[in-house]
């Protein structure tokens, strides 16, 4: 919402922080898209390998063997990744629902046009069926010619 300069400011205190849900949704989709790539798996593998190698080979071990801090870091990453992925899926589901509705409207419109064209073609067939064909006109002319010619004998 844009603030207008000709209106007094609303001085209500907010207890919750304000955020833009659309921007947050776009960010979550970008993160979810990245988490679903091979690049992320490679980065995580390298990160865990370096972490474990450092704590096995280096003289200064900041997270010795059962790697509690590493487990905490990975759990924290997973606890944020899951809701972000769900949020991205929900946004995709909303987009799919809108696309489905638009496709349904377009399909209904196309069906109505097809039905209209079918009725028009049927009308043309009926009209053509009632028209005199060339052979019919020839046969009628021959009958008339015979009648006219038959009266001269």
Automatic annotation (TrEMBL):
It holds the Pfam family DUF1003. The keyword Transmembrane applies. Keywords: Membrane, Transmembrane, Transmembrane helix. The chain crosses the membrane at residues 34-54, 66-87. The keyword Signal does not apply. This is DUF1003 domain-containing protein.
